[in-house]
Write a structure and sequence with these properties.
It is a single chain. The protein is an alpha+beta fold. The chain folds into 2 domains: 3-101, no CATH class; 106-259, Phosphorylase Kinase, domain 1 (2-Layer Sandwich), CATH 3.30.200.100. It has helices at 3-14, 20-32, 34-59, 65-84, 86-100, 103-124, 135-142, 240-255, 263-267, and strands at 159-168, 171-180, 190-198, 213-217, 220-227, 230-236. It has a 6-stranded antiparallel beta sheet with strand order 1-2-3-6-5-4, with helices on both faces. A hairpin with a 2-residue loop joins strand 1 and strand 2 (171-180). It is elongated. The chain starts with a helix and ends in a 7-residue tail after the last helix. The structure holds zinc ion. Keywords: Membrane, Transmembrane, Transmembrane helix. Residues 3-37 form the Putative zinc-finger domain. It holds the Pfam family zf-HC2.
């Protein structure tokens, strides 16, 4: 069962309209998917408080006897359904307890792999860019299109070829496309895709710069890192060492003071500077 499938049956499921074997499927998904477990938990809590509020309203209102009897019958049915749903509440609670214990750490890499796979798949599709131009132009184009600000990293030795709006799993993301030209030593031109998305809740395990986690999927290397609440995923067929060097150089350039440095000093190796 996928997250989308669970999403489409969530409400009938919460209403207890499922057979035991269907429930098992849902339960299996909830054990492996922190996002959905959290969501189910939230829905359950919301339903409970709605019910409490309804009960309270009925108890505190003087309704005609016949109407009151009908409403109370409804509440009794609700209570029966409550018991049916006990198993779900228990299993959702178990998932939460698991997460509070060590299993949460085990779930997060799985979660990250989901994002790695999805980014690689989308990069492979080679979708056309929606905007081209310089870094500032592309950054300005993203303004207002996503909930988070997009800064376009200046990766060393590559050209910015453009950008588009995309997704990584269900997160709206900026997709920034770079190209490295073929060089004189015969290395072919390479395409580099960078996904940028908001992860304020820190659900994706991504190390803060200058650290970077490199995984692989669909024949691509995928580097993942975080800058506060923003997660970056760089997808490319470059070697892992090339990617690490590229990200490290970009991080170093970013943390350097933006005050312009005279070119002859900047070009000299650090050890030779007076
Ligand atoms: Zn899910």
């Amino acid at each position: 069962m996928t997250c989308q499938e669970l999403d489409s049956i969530l409400y009938p499921f919460l209403d207890g309209e499922f057979q035991p074997e269907e429930r098992l499927e849902v339960e299996a998904h909830l054990t492996g998917c922190a996002e959905c477990a959290q969501r189910v938990n939230m829905e359950l809590r919301m339903q409970q408080s709605l019910r409490r509020a309804a009960r309270h309203a009925v108890e505190s209102t003087r309704a005609p006897d016949a109407l009151r009897a009908r409403i109370q019958l409804g509440i009794r049915q609700e209570q029966r359904r409550d018991t049916q749903m006990g198993w779900l509440r228990a299993s959702a609670a178990a998932v939460v307890v698991l997460m509070a214990g060590g299993a949460w750490m085990a779930l997060r890499p799985e979660q990250r792999q989901r994002f790695v796979d999805d980014a690689a798949r989308r990069h492979a599709r080679q979708l056309p860019v929606e905007v081209a131009g310089g870094h500032e132009h592309v950054e300005a184009w993203f303004d207002g299109k996503l909930d988070h600000r997009v800064s376009v990293p200046r990766l060393p030795n590559v050209q910015l070829s453009g950008a588009r709006i995309s997704n990584v799993t269900d997160r709206p993301a900026a997709y920034i496309s770079y190209e490295r030209n073929a060089d004189k030593q015969g290395a072919p031109a390479r395409r580099i895709g960078l996904f940028v998305f908001d992860d304020a809740k820190r659900e994706v395990e991504a190390p803060p710069l200058p650290s970077v986690q490199v995984g692989s999927s669909h024949g691509y290397n995928v580097a993942v890192w975080r800058d506060e609440e923003i997660v970056y995923e760089l997808v490319s067929d470059l070697d892992e060492s090339d990617i690490r060097r590229m990200v490290a150089e970009q991080a170093a350039a970013k943390s350097r003071p933006s005050r312009p440095v005279s070119p002859d000093v900047a070009a000299r190796p650090v050890a030779l500077q007076p």
